[in-house]
Specification:
By secondary structure, the chain is an all-alpha fold. The chain has a single domain, classed as Orthogonal Bundle (Hypothetical protein af1432). The chain is built from 10 helices and no strands. Helix 3 packs across helix 6 and helix 6 packs across helix 9. The longest helix has 20 residues. The chain is globular. The termini are close together. The model has no long low-confidence stretch (mean pLDDT 91).
């Protein structure tokens, strides 16, 4: 069984790793969460923003192989409710969605996000857009995606990981 300490340890051990971006994973996670918090997002959505790329950290530590939007929610579902894990599971699809429905969105993506978009299937088709809009949590996933896109500034001053521990503890499912 995964404990919150296991999740936090991922960030302490592998947070300096980079994945397709100039900023390290921990800095990116903290910036994304800070953007969610400053937007007044619900606690579960702030947590999702913080942990949306945890699958990259799992991979860095020799964890399960597979797309990070699949490995992170599977790992985190042992602790957190779907209000946290669903937006994480859909944040890559949300990028594909936004590329399909907002003509200027693609141009605003970082080079790393543009590169990964190609590996992730490119913009959604109209049928995929319609299907995505029926998924529970799709609106929250789009919000996480926008914060994800904005949270890539080297040296940005944001609260540290310890500041999110009480919020994360409050969201851990009972019995976990």
């Amino acid at each position: 069984m995964t404990a919150l300490e296991d999740v936090l340890d991922l960030y302490h051990r592998w947070g300096a790793e980079r994945y397709d971006e100039e900023v390290g994973q921990l800095d990116h996670a903290l910036q994304t969460a800070a953007l969610a918090a400053s937007a007044g997002a619900a606690d579960a959505l702030v947590a999702a923003a913080l942990m949306h790329d945890a699958g990259h950290l799992l991979a860095a530590g020799g964890g399960p192989a597979g797309p990070h939007e699949c490995t992170a929610p599977a790992f985190l579902a042992q602790l957190f409710p779907v209000s946290v894990t669903d937006p994480i599971a859909l944040h890559v699809a949300a990028k594909r969605y936004l590329c399909a429905v907002e003509p200027d969105y693609h141009a605003g993506l970082s080079a790393g996000s543009q590169s990964s978009l190609r590996r992730q299937g490119g913009p959604m088709s109209s049928g995929e857009v319609a299907a995505f809009e029926t998924m529970p949590g799709w609106v929250d996933a789009v919000a996480v995606r926008r914060w994800d896109d904005a949270g890539k500034i080297e040296g940005a001053a944001v609260p540290g990981l310890a500041s999110y521990e009480p919020l994360l503890r409050s969201l851990v499912c009972s019995g976990s």
